[in-house]
Design a protein that fits this description.
This is Lysozyme. This protein is α/β, with parallel strands linked by helices. Helices cover about 30% and strands about 30% of the residues. The protein contains 6 helices and 9 strands. Helix 3 packs parallel to helix 4.
């Protein structure tokens, strides 16, 4: 497997090697051989969609979890689109339960769960108190199922959905999308919000056609020493 390493020469006398950890997410149906190809390209973790904004389990995502594991990925996350649309009658807790029941029934496990909180999916209303209560219920129920829970969001979405200063989730991981900015540029453009001083993951590139014939969104796992 290739690795992404940045070599810094300090004062021409000492050398520090920093190997960044890169991963990807994709909604595409990915084969085992394609996962193996992506691992060989240097990606060390995969994030599968496990629940859709329609209020249903994403079984393509579950199949991808199984195939990623078969291809040798040892770090596999899941991301979860909640549904607040009128046709979705399940509570936040019921939606989380549906996702984890499907994982269990298929003999699958994930290392982290990311709750996708963004305005683009069209589910969120204008009542911030209601949105806050829904997200709180998502988090509380998720933590009954898995130890590591995080939030996928950025400043504008958080501001519009729950208010920029609402910080109930500030002790959770933050997966932060900021495209067209390299990892090196993130420190100069990130503005703290919601109680998050810095992200855990930075999604920096989207809809990239990889050499493995898979369209992916790319993220890096932020080393605290780099941020």
């Amino acid at each position: 497997m290739k690795s992404f390493c940045v070599i810094l020469v300090l004062l021409a006398f000492s050398t520090t090697v920093n190997c960044r950890k890169y991963g990807f997410d994709s909604m595409q149906n990915i084969t085992v051989s394609q996962f193996a190809c992506l691992a060989n390209e240097g990606y060390s973790f995969f994030i599968a969609r496990i629940y859709r904004s329609k209020g249903i389990v994403d079984y393509v995502g579950l199949e991808n979890i199984a195939r990623a594991s078969e291809a040798g990925f040892h770090e596999i996350h899941g991301y979860f689109f909640p549904c607040l649309k009128s046709e979705c009658r399940q509570s936040a807790a019921q939606q989380i339960d549906e996702a984890f029941t499907a994982l269990e029934e298929n003999g699958l496990e994930i290392d982290k769960l990311w709750l996708d909180i963004q305005v683009e999916n069209g589910s969120w209303g204008t009542d911030k108190k209601h949105n806050q209560a829904f997200i709180k219920e998502l988090i509380d129920e998720a933590e009954h199922e898995i130890e590591k829970v995080g939030i996928y969001t950025q400043n504008d979405s958080w501001k519009n959905i729950v208010g920029i200063d609402w910080n109930y989730a500030n002790n959770k991981y933050l997966w932060y999308p900021r495209f067209n900015k390299t990892p090196e540029e993130l420190t100069s453009v990130y503005t703290p919000f919601g109680g998050w001083r810095k992200p855990k993951l930075h999604q920096f590139d989207q809809n990239v056609k990889s050499k493995c014939d898979v369209k992916i969104n790319r993220s890096w796992d932020i080393d605290p020493q780099e941020f």
